């Protein structure tokens, strides 16, 4: 029940309520638990009708970048293995 | 990638290629593990991710998951549910709660059954809705049966703050907020589960800060990684744990750096402290009493406290689970759902005998939904 859902802030009203977009679904959430200033366009985590925290965009991008690099490294490694096994191919050395 | 899109926060952490790559790294590095990893994922949200994405099947047998007590629905003892039912049966009363709570069996009945019997019982999307309901029904008693871990407690506190500010006098609180660290301590003190690493739930730490897990590595010589709930988050956390083991490190690390800090949300913490204090005793379903593992309203807010105001009608006897139900053993990490005799036969999500089958985050429910694994 307490999963938190990443959402984007699209509007903030005078009662400290934000309208957020959760992958196409619009909801109203309270910003009463947030100490930081929240702006339109910010990403927040929401839970049972409240924003729990801001999502740090830098950190999220860094994680995604890390995964991208990891994939590249893995592809590189696969390519190297294919070439190596080709180099060591017994049939060829015999020929 | 230069600017973050909302979609990235979902798809970016579910990419099947990255899942495969991480699984491969874990397999490679797990070969060097000196002993099998017995990993407790404290939170039911993680159990759900592990089952839904078949993560266990991607990983070597040397990595075993132990499903922890981290679901506030699963751990609610029957006598507390009986409280909710008793309160709902008072005259001119509306009983409110969140999510799956409504279907959990108490000693004789559940809130869902009582709702069908005609009592006014409602499951809310947000505690905030309680405010509107109380205002619209000035001649009724409105009782909020508040449940949840550290993640959900501040929302109850925020509601209390609004009730106080707006001078609402017909909204009462039955507080069942529980705390993760004491439950982890209770399981470790029991010692039987032989857990040697933890995946900590990130959303608890979004509020309470990663600092709540800091004592664990020292106390139990177990690594702890505070992890998000997407499959990539969970796998990256496991990789971090395997690396700690291989490097003979034992630390608290944060995988979910996109929203967890050491200190957490201090405003939310202050809000909780204003209204609530630790409760000396709270019984966890299947586990038993864990001292100081839950919260209660402070004495100065007794005017809102349903447990005090309606004390003379609330039952006090502890009530244990059905004899065949082994939820408690599962919550302690000593059994898996498919070890239960009635799993999938007498006990299914439509006919749950125990809370672990009711809650969508319960281990039995996840095993049933995604196919049992050995
Ligand atoms: S309530 Fe929160 S901590 Fe508990 S199982 Fe659900 S998601 Fe996890
Ligand atoms: S399968 Fe049902 S009866 Fe068995 S432990 Fe799970 S909830 Fe309890």
Describe the structure.
- The complex is a heterodimer of chains A (95) and B (374).
- With 95 residues, chain A is an alpha+beta fold.
- Chain A is built from two helices and five strands.
- Chain A has helices spanning 57-87, 90-94; strands at residues 5-12, 17-22, 25-30, 43-47, 50-54.
- In chain A, strands 3-2-1-4-5 form a five-stranded antiparallel beta sheet, with no helix packed on it.
- The longest helix of chain A has 31 residues, at 57-87.
- Chain A is rod-shaped and about 75 Å long.
- In chain A, 32% of the residues are buried.
- Chain B is of the alpha/beta class.
- Chain B has 17 helices and 13 strands.
- The mean pLDDT of chain B is 93.
- At the A-B interface, β1, β4, β5 and α1 of A face α1, α2, α8, α10 and α13 of B.
- One iron/sulfur cluster is lined by residues 324-327, 330, 337, 340, 342-343, 347, 353-354, 356-357, 364 of chain B.
The level of helicity of chain B is 25-40%
Radius of gyration of chain A using CA atoms only: 24 Å
Largest protein interface, residues of each chain: A-B, 39 and 57 residues
- Per DSSP, what share of the residues of chain B sits in E-state strands of 2 or more residues? 15-25%
Biggest sheet strand order of chain B reads: 2-1-7-8-9
Characterize the biggest β-sheet of chain B.
5 strands, parallel
What is the residue-averaged pLDDT of chain B? 93
Q: How far is the N terminus from the C terminus of chain B?
A: 40 Å
Q: What's the gyration radius of chain B in Å? A: 21 Å
What's the order of the H and E elements of chain B?
HHEHHEHEHEHEHEHEHHEHEHEEEEHHHH
- How many H/I helical runs of chain A? 2
Bound molecules: iron/sulfur cluster
Number of helices of chain B: 17
Give the DSSP E fraction of chain A (strand runs of 2 or more residues). 25-35%
- The class by helix and strand makeup of chain A works out as alpha+beta
Structural class of chain B: alpha/beta
Unreliable runs of chain B = none
Quaternary organisation = heterodimer
